């Protein structure tokens, strides 16, 4: 069981690192897009929409990993 918790923690840490990178890239995109109208450059708008979808998916995935770590800890205490 403790091996499960250790591997789940490692996976959570790596997913959190990717999360931080993705949020930083999204923040950079939003800074670049500040002066543009939505739809002026369709490729730029679609890239932003795709990036926002990816960040949302990855955030939910990381939250699931965090809940898994919490569940494994709770299982070890009982």
Task: Characterize the structure shown.
This protein is mainly α. The chain has one domain. α1 packs antiparallel against α2. The longest helix has 36 residues.
Q: Write down the overall geometry.
A: rod-shaped
Low-confidence stretches: none
Structural class: mainly alpha
Instruction: Write down the overall mean pLDDT.
Output: 89
Q: What is the rounded distance between the termini?
A: 12 Å
Helix content: over 70%
Compute the number of structural domains: 1
| Total number of helices | 2
Order of helices and strands: HH
Largest sheet, in brief, is:
none
Brief summary:
The protein is mainly α. Helix content is 87%, strand content 0%.
What are the SSEs and their pairings?
Blueprint: H1 2-33, H2 42-77
Helix pairs in contact: 1-2
Which keywords apply here?
mainly alpha; rod-shaped
């Amino acid at each position: 069981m403790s091996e499960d918790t250790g591997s789940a923690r490692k996976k959570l840490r790596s997913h959190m690192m990717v999360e931080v990178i993705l949020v930083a890239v999204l923040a950079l995109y939003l800074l670049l897009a500040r002066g543009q109208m939505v739809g002026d450059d369709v490729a730029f708008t679609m890239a932003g929409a795709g990036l926002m979808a990816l960040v949302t998916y990855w955030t939910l995935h990381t939250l699931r990993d965090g809940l898994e770590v919490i569940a494994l800890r709770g299982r070890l205490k009982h």
